[in-house]
Automatic annotation (TrEMBL):
Full protein name: Baseplate J domain-containing protein
Pfam families: Baseplate_J, Baseplate_J_C, Baseplate_J_M
Domain of life: Bacteria
Organism: Serratia symbiotica str. Tucson
Signal sequence bounds: none
InterPro entries cross-referenced by the UniProt entry: Barrel_Baseplate_J-like, Baseplate_J-like_C, Baseplate_J_M, Phage_Baseplate_Assmbl_Protein
Stated family: Belongs to the Mu gp47/PBSX XkdT family.
Domain Baseplate J-like central: 203-295
Domain Baseplate protein J-like barrel residues, every copy: 93-182
Length: 382
């Protein structure tokens, strides 16, 4: 049976009782007597020891370990905490005088102070414009304990300003394409999930789980699915999601589907988030496999709910979150996915204040085709 750790109060009572039993001809210990103080001090030390033993027990298994102990257990399976990843954009437009040159390493600053660095020289063309590639400068870990990588993601059209004025180059410019790929340091719970997956599913030389582990080891990738023979014999499809890292795209990866640019076969090459995953998988996958890394396609599902048109915004927000949770945990783009109507009814019914609701639309289970992932559309209350 499990061990019940005694509380500090129980330890004090036991210590006082034990002390009195060792003394002859004594009554109750006075409130401020030396004997009572000694008994309470001894109980406090015992309580501290119990706490340390609890800590040791917690770190003794991968399932409960934390901090450096968690990292140590994970390292035994060659699973390591993913560092922060900087965002980048391949197209930032500079404006200036023709033939003016901006050397790589130039620093540009966003309106909120976040900084980016030019990674190659840019020469202004005859049209007075030049396109450069930028990568985010991750903030100091002291200033941003999470790594600050996700903060570097930005929409197209975002304006930046050169840190130092340069002759022939306008200080301000805009992102032609969005900055993507930024991710914070991996959380302990995410590391734990990947570590437990490694313990539960040893490498099998290219099994479905192997591809999932490889994809999840890439910064910013939060979910993935493997589809065998996606593009025919000898091919493997890997669908990925970047939930929380690119809110502007609702968690869907930003880039184009395809093979790793390092693969000499084929012309359909992956870029962006898909390219990062494809490049990571390429040297690890079996040599005969053609691995296509793809983004799922959003399947928007609208809802019509009757019987509770009187509810407030707090309940409607809870309903939306419940629907999103079902879609998140049950949705899969592998072609055999299905969202059960019973799961949606149960999730909504568990919310206080929804008694009497009727889910009018959808009216049946939601089938998901290959590559489709469900996304909540409009929710209408009647």
């Amino acid at each position: 049976m499990p061990f019940n750790r005694p509380t500090l109060t129980e330890l004090r009572e036991k210590s006082r009782t034990q002390l009195k039993s060792e003394l002859r001809q004594t009554g109750a210990l006075l409130r401020y007597s030396n004997m009572r103080v000694l008994a309470d001090a001894d109980a406090g030390l015992a309580h501290l020891h119990y706490g340390y033993l609890d800590y040791i027990a917690q770190q003794a298994t991968p399932f409960n370990a934390t901090d450096e102990w968690l990292a140590g257990w994970a390292a035994l399976k060659s699973v390591y905490q993913i560092a922060a990843n900087p965002a980048s954009t391949p197209s930032y437009q500079f404006i200036g005088i023709a033939d003016s040159t901006l050397e790589k390493g130039a620093v540009l600053r966003r309106g909120d102070g976040y900084c980016y660095r030019l990674i190659e020289d840019v020469t202004i063309g005859e049209n007075g414009k030049g396109i450069g590639k930028l990568t985010a400068i991750l903030p100091d870990i002291i200033d941003a304990p999470t790594g600050g990588g996700i903060d570097g993601n930005a929409d197209s059209g975002t304006a930046l300003t050169l840190d130092i004025s340069l002759p022939g180059i306008d200080a301000s410019g805009v992102m032609v394409e969005p900055a993507t790929g930024g991710a914070d340091i991996e959380t302990q719970e995410s590391l734990r999930a990947r570590m437990l997956l490694a313990y539960q599913t040893p490498p099998q030389g290219g099994s479905d789980k192997d591809y999932e582990q490889w994809a999840l080891a890439v910064p910013g990738i939060t979910r993935c699915w493997t589809k065998r023979r996606l593009m025919g014999a000898g091919t493997v499809g890997v669908y990925i999601m970047c939930d929380g890292n690119d809110e502007t795209n609702h968690g869907f990866p930003v880039g184009t589907d395809g093979l790793s640019p390092r693969d000499e076969w084929g012309v359909q090459k992956a870029t962006g988030d898909q390219g990062r995953v494809a490049d990571y998988i390429y040297p690890r996958a079996p040599v005969t496999a053609l691995v296509y890394v793809c983004s799922p396609v959003a399947k928007t599902v609208d809802f019509k709910i009757s019987g509770i048109s009187h509810v407030g915004s707090d309940i409607t927000a809870a309903i939306a979150a419940a629907i999103d949770s079902v879609f998140f945990h049950e949705g899969t783009p592998t072609g055999n996915g299905k969202i059960f109507l019973s799961d949606l009814n149960r999730a909504i019914g568990d919310i206080a204040g929804t008694a009497g609701f009727i889910l009018v639309t959808p009216s049946s289970n939601i089938d998901l085709g290959v590559g489709e992932l469900p996304v909540r559309g409009e929710v209408e209350y009647t």
